[in-house]
């Protein structure tokens, strides 16, 4: 069943676990996510980035997720990840997304506030939740790139001002994660996370979580992270399974090639859901 992101994250915030938010570009990724959620009885967020929407199109992404959500009793939210273009956000709202992210983090604080507030006014009027970001998360997420020099940790005072003046439903913060593969082990600023969570008392989002050690993920959840974005780890599972199958089989049927890759993605997603504490929370 399709629900708002706010419904999922408010419950996670109250009960102390995190909901996995998994990026999709294809039908097989959507199927893998839903299958994993059903097997673990986990609520789930399926999200599309700007790159995903360019690849599959907003109509296709929306139709795939809606079709799968209609046939399951698992609560599913359809989320726009890193929306930077106002027209694109409006297009997602028209096509039934139940949650959107406005990423105005590259703007000065007041610009971020003004842009985010505008999106909240429209989205909230139709029951759609809004995620914003403050601080800059390093790395590349499709069309959004932040260099190591640009990456700055979230300032708690600025975060509090953004939340109070916009009415957002969840906040993505920068505490040391990055988009894409890591060159070394990321060092997260848990003290900053704990302070922000205490001051805001709302769902906190962690981007760039693929490759972060399990101990760090579990600690982040214990300190108040309620939404965790995963993309790279799913891609790696997919590519490894495809290479392994092609190396061992003389096959040309896409279904035979992709099926083991879909299964591999499902297992990766299940492991994340268990790690995040969302298993059994549907």
Task: Provide a descriptive summary of the structure in words.
The protein is globular. It has one domain (5-276): Alpha-Beta Barrel (TIM Barrel). It contains eleven helices and eleven strands. It is of the alpha/beta class and 282 residues long. Strand 1, helix 2 and strand 2 (44-48) form a beta-alpha-beta unit. The strands form two sheets. It has an eight-stranded parallel beta barrel, surrounded by ten helices.
List keywords for this structure.
50% helix, 3-stranded mixed β-sheet, 282 residues, alpha/beta, single chain, globular, TIM Barrel
Fold blueprint:
Layout: H1 5-15, E1 19-23, H2 27-40, E2 44-48, H3 50-56, H4 58-70, E3 76-83, H5 86-94, E4 99-102, H6 109-125, E5 129-134, E6 138-141, E7 144-146, H7 156-166, E8 170-173, E9 178-179, H8 190-200, E10 204-206, H9 214-222, E11 225-230, H10 232-248, H11 254-276
Parallel strand pairs: 1-2, 1-11, 2-3, 3-4, 4-5, 5-8, 6-9, 8-10, 10-11
Antiparallel strand pairs: 6-7
């Amino acid at each position: 069943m399709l629900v708002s992101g706010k419904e999922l994250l408010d419950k996670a915030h109250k009960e102390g676990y995190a909901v996995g938010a998994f990026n999709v570009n294809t039908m097989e990724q959507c199927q893998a996510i839903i299958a994993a959620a059903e097997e673990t009885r986990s609520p789930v967020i399926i999200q599309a980035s700007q790159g995903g929407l360019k690849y599959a199109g907003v109509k296709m992404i929306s139709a795939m997720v809606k079709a799968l959500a209609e046939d399951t009793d698992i609560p599913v939210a359809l989320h726009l990840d890193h929306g930077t273009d106002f027209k694109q956000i409006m297009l997602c709202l028209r096509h039934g997304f139940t949650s959107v992210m406005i990423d105005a983090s590259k703007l000065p604080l007041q610009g971020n506030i003004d842009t985010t507030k505008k999106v909240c006014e429209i989205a909230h009027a139709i029951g759609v939740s809004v995620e914003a970001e403050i601080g800059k998360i390093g790395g590349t997420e499709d069309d959004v790139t932040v260099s190591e020099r640009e990456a700055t940790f979230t300032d708690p005072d600025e975060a509090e001002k953004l939340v109070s003046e916009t009415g957002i439903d969840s906040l993505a913060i920068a505490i040391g994660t990055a988009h894409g593969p890591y060159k070394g082990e990321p060092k997260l600023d848990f003290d900053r996370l704990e302070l922000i969570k205490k001051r805001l008392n709302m769902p906190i989002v962690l981007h760039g979580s693929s490759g972060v050690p399990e101990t760090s993920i579990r600690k982040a959840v214990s300190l108040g992270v309620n939404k965790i974005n995963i993309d790279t780890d799913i891609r790696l599972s997919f590519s490894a399974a495809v290479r392994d199958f092609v190396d061992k089989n003389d096959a040309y049927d896409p279904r035979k090639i992709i099926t083991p890759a879909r299964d591999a993605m499902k297992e990766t997603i299940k492991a994340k859901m268990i790690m995040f504490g969302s298993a059994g929370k549907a």
